[in-house]
Amino acid sequence: MTLLNILTYPNPFLRLPTNPVTDIDDEIREIIADMAETMYDAPGVGLAAIQAGIDKSIIVYDPEADDQKRDFQVLINPEIIAAEGSMTSENEGCLSVPDFRADVTRAQRVTVQGLDIDGNPVRIDAEGLLSVIFQHEIDHLKGVLFIDHISALKRNMYKKKRIKALKSEQTV
Ligand code: NI
Q1: How confident is the model at residue 172 (pLDDT cuts 50, 70, 90)?
Q2: How far is the C-alpha of 121 from the C-alpha of 39, rounded, in Å?
Q3: Which of 44, 53, 115, 153 is the most exposed place for a label (fewest CB within 10 A)?
Q4: So where are the chain's domains?
C-alpha cells in the first residue's frame, strides 16, 4: 500500500467534479486500499479520492477510527438521496483545509446510496457523525469544501491566512 499525497486548499483540483467508477477493477481496489491507509495515517475519519488527486467518485470512512481498530468502509459513486432536519456540526475540519475548523450547518439525517467494493448497491440511513461524514465527503466529489458552507467573512479570513502561510513556506 502507498500513502497518497493529500492536496490542500487552494489547489484547484479540489474544485473539480469527479467521475463515476464504471468498473471496479484491481486499479480501483488498489486506490481504495491506498485511500484507507492515507486516511488512517493523516489521521482522519473520511477521505474522498479527489483529495488524493484522483478524480473518481470514491469515499472511504471510519467514524470510529483509532490505532487499535481499523475497520473502514468504502462507497463508490455515492449520492445523497434524502436529507432531513438540521444540526450544527461542531468544529468540522478537513484534511485538505489545514489549520482551520468551523461549525457547519448540516442535515441531521441523510440517506445515501452507492456501491460497495464488490459493486453491490447499498443504501445507508445515517445520523450524527456518520451523516456529517457523508455530507462532507460527498461534497468533495462535487468540488465543494466545508468552508463553502460558512460565512464569506470567515472564509475570506481563512483564505488570507492560508495564502500567507503558503508564501512563508515558499520563502524558507
Ligand atoms: Ni474533507
Answers
A1: low
A2: 24
A3: 153
A4: 12-170
Q: Which amino acid is at 133?
A: I
How many angstroms separate the alpha carbon of residue 119 from the centre of ligand 1?
24
* Integer Cα distance of 31 and 49 in angstroms: 8
DSSP state of 75: E
Report the SS3 class of residue 132. helix
- 55 residue type, one letter: D
Fill in the amino acid letter for 88. Answer: T
Q: Is the pTM of this model over 0.90?
A: yes
| CB 72 within 8 Å of CB 41 | no
CA 136 to chain centre: 6
- Ligand 1 centroid to residue 146 C-alpha, Å: 7
Query: What is the CA(167)–ligand 1 centre distance, in A?
Result: 23
Average pLDDT over residues 112-139: 97
pLDDT digits (tens, 9 = 90+) for 95-116: 999 999 999 999 999 999 999 9
Given CATH 3.30.720.210, say whether it is the number of domain 12-170: no
Give the chain's mean pLDDT. 95
